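Onboarding guide, step 5: your first structure request.
Type a short instruction followed by the sequence, for example:

Predict the 3D structure of this protein.
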Amino acid sequence: MGEEYNAQESKAPFNMAIATLMSLRQTLDHIRNIEGRIDYPAEERQRIKIELVKRFYVDSAPLIMDDKIIKEYSYVLELTPIMFICVDTKTQKQNRRIKYSPELNKKLDIALLDLQVELQKKKYYMPPREDMGRAGMKMG
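The system replies with structure tokens like these:
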């Protein structure tokens, strides 16, 4: 019984890189889906996208494993929706509101694109040709 336990201990129960890639794919799918939700205000879609891009950055860092590159994109964690103060002319009450920003959206898209390129440089997105069949079986 002790030998059986040791045999299981030497093998990883699952490939963390594949699990992480599947999570990253889900995050990208969520981003695509939220951008397509025209029933949500643009400001809300952007607010959600910011959080999903942050999640993509954090989740991709263990695969990138390069401190220089990880630090280069750490600005993603500082991104926030553009806020403005709206004043009710009758009551003079101030409310903070989110404003959609095309520039911020572009910054988010560039960060996503660049992070995906970094992952590809590490050969995570497209495995070597001989591994294509095995990777497809694991992902499915």
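Each response can be followed by summary notes, for example: The beta strands are 82-87, 94-99.
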